[in-house]
Write a structure and sequence with these properties.
The protein is an alpha/beta fold and about 325 residues long. The chain is built from ten helices and 15 strands. It has two domains: about 60 residues, 2-Layer Sandwich (Alpha-Beta Plaits), CATH 3.30.70.1140; about 250 residues, Alpha-Beta Barrel (TIM Barrel). Bound molecules: phosphoenolpyruvate and manganese (II) ion (MN). Phosphoenolpyruvate binds next to loops.
């Protein structure tokens, strides 16, 4: 971290600042030029409050030269993290295929879809029980009943389940859920992230609609700082000026995240595209870009789905796509589970 000191800063104030930083165990490199004085800070600066230093009278600017996240940072953890989620591994060559409907709607729907996606090779079942909908008048999810249906499928088919949490008060209902999803809209719900940091289950963290990669990694850091280091990152498209697709799939985020972090990175082409026919090409691109998994929406009757029918594959098209995707996984040295 570099602190640029204002010209004509009184020597006493400069010494006071340096003394203060030394007391926090930082090594100081002072460079006094003709026009500028620069303080170089060496040490773990991830805990430093930049705004606090910026607020000082004699400080012109503060710049980070290293990332503000530590636990999620590959610099401090060179090897890929491999997460065990309900007996299935994700990361380090282990690929996750998470498939299922946007919303859990009924027992019959869930049993039918679970049987189908499992046969096609999916190793996780997804389904929203608590739904973050733009309109308060849209289907809000079956809530606790939805979780019960997911757990019944888990029991019957022996498949781990992934479902979204929206509020701290619902945590008790997620006790037997294998992977707890934090949706895009809650990526910066810091109080929720802190509570999830106290749990043992893996957390699937989706990138916010308008969040930078660094903000995304800082949200992972929140969960990890609390003690839960089992975080799976999910690129699901971001808001841009383009309106043809529901979001813009940020393909480059995948290799960037894999470069900056050791955490597994998966892609959700369904929410990125918003259109079912784009799911396959984006899935192929995600695998080629190094993704450790995919989250795909599959519905037995997309036309009558209570949410996101337009982007859902039928079990049949999902099966066809999976056959083709396996060659891409092989090429990247990835295997399911
Ligand atoms: C979902 O996965 O059902 C969902 C709501 O996704 P996102 O948070 O990415 O919009
Ligand atoms: Mn959806």
């Amino acid at each position: 971290m570099i602190i640029i000191v204002k010209q004509q800063a009184p020597e006493t104030k400069l010494n006071e600042l340096i003394h203060n930083l030394e007391q926090q165990n930082f090594k100081i490199h002072l460079s006094k030029g003709e026009n500028t004085t620069i303080i170089g800070l060496v040490g773990d600066t991830s805990l430093v409050d930049i705004d606090n230093i910026k607020a000082k009278d004699i400080v012109e600017d503060v710049r980070r030269v290293s990332e503000p996240y530590k636990k999620a940072n590959r610099k401090f953890h060179a090897d890929d993290t491999v997460i065990d989620a309900g007996g299935q591994l994700i990361g380090g060559g282990h690929f996750a295929v998470i498939a299922g409907p946007c919303s859990v709607e009924s027992e019959q729907q869930m049993l039918e879809i679970t049987g189908d996606i499992r046969k096609s090779g999916a190793n996780f079942l997804r389904g929203g029980a608590y739904k973050p909908r733009t309109s308060p008048y849209a289907f809000q999810g079956l809530e606790q009943d939805g979780i019960r249906l997911l757990l019944a499928c888990k029991k019957q088919f022996g498949i781990p389940v992934v479902t979204e949490i929206m509020g701290i008060s619902d945590i008790p209902y997620f006790e037997h859920v294998d992977v707890i999803q934090v949706g895009a809209r809650n990526m910066q719900n810091f109080r929720l992230l802190k509570e999830l940091g106290k749990l043992k289950q893996p957390i699937l963290l989706k990138r916010g609609l308008a969040n930078t990669i660094e903000e995304f990694l800082m949200s992972a850091e929140y969960i990890m700082a609390g003690g839960n280091e089992n975080v799976i990152l999910c690129e699901r498209g971001i808001r841009t000026f383009e309106t043809f697709t529901r979001n813009t799939f940020d393909l480059s985020a995948i290799p960037v995240l894999k470069n900056k972090s050791h955490l597994p990175v998966i892609a959700d082409p369904s929410h990125a595209a918003g259109l079912n026919w784009l799911v396959e090409p984006l899935s192929k691109a995600a695998i080629a870009a190094g993704a450790d998994g995919l989250m795909i929406e599959v519905h037995n009757d997309p036309e009558h789905a209570l949410s996101d029918g337009k982007q859902s594959l039928t079990p049949h098209t999902f099966d066809d796509m999976m056959k083709r995707l396996k060659a891409y996984m092989e090429l990247e040295g990835k295997q399911i589970g």
